[in-house]
Write a structure and sequence with these properties.
Elements lengths: L8 H7 L8 E10 L3 E2 L13 H14 L8 E5 L7 E5 L1 H9 L4 E9 L2 H10 L11 H13 L7 H11 L5 H14 L11 H10 L10 H4 L2 E5 L5 H14 L3 E5 L9 H27 L3 H6 L5 E6 L6 E2 L5 E2 L14
Parallel strand pairs: 2-4, 3-5, 6-7, 7-8
Antiparallel strand pairs: 1-5, 3-4, 9-10
Helix pairs in contact: 2-3, 4-5, 5-7, 6-7
Amino acid sequence: MNKLIYLDLEKSLTQSPPIYPTGVIHKKRIRIQRALVTFPETQEFREQGKNISNVQQIKDSYIVHGFLHDEPVQVVTVDPNNKDRFVGIAGYHRNEAQEWLDWEVAIYDVVEFKTPRDRLKFGYTSNHHRPAQKIIRSDILKGIKTAITSRFILDTDAAILDFLGEIAGNETIVKRKALLKSFRLSNSGFENLESFGSIIANEKALELNIPYLGDKNYVKTGLHGYVKEASVGKQLMVDGLKLWLDEGEDIHVTGYITFPTPNNLKTRRLSEKNNVYKLNDFLYQVAAKLTDMPFDEIKKKGKSPFKYNGFLPQVISADPTNGGLPVEIGKVDYDGTPML
């Protein structure tokens, strides 16, 4: 199907000359058999992998418009294990669409990179053209993590923002700061502290047999409860009270601290612990108002819906008294004391 697609190498060079950022060395533009190019199954710069919907859109674009000679071409490097073959760097989805359409040849730019960081940067800026899939938030967060673990950049806010200027330069500074904040939800910036977002926090609760999302993990724990970045909130109160009325059981509240620092972890935990008690006092006040009973009498009944259930472990520095295991392993009190 459509094997004789019109591909004019000279027209491509004229209408879309090879212009690359510093650090990317253009060697040549070639029109070759697609069988000589390998695009890895796992995309180096993508978090979510291949997007079938996007492949379909590119396929439709090829059918309707043909090859767009005025847009950048796919990018490859020489295969380090075989100088007669190439490895795909940019154009995964275009390659997949071409496969669906049975293209036998395609046009590519052969490049080299001065440094591994230049390669990473290019991977996140190579899709600003048609047809292409937009780099999304999770892809960029993956790029930050890769840059840090590969020691291309320091794990500091300033270094990350500078790097975001390279890989997400088409975004506003406000958006880049928001991306940094999202990254910090799961990467505290302190070697001895673990940071959580809601999804990872719930995964941690599952691992530690802590109730979350109301009745999640009830089979293992026999408890109802929630894991919240702020132990008390309007949604927690509404959801928790509904569950309490339905089940007639205590609602266990387990907290975690977002953007923790060594200096504020303990004080913020203590504040969140006190908030659980304040919430119950508020409900006692409501009950006293509704029943015209004294607050103290209501409180003496001890029928508070919400139970303080400690915090997820976040201090991961090595404990020399415990074989180098993390200081906090399981559920802890506000001061880091283990809780059963």
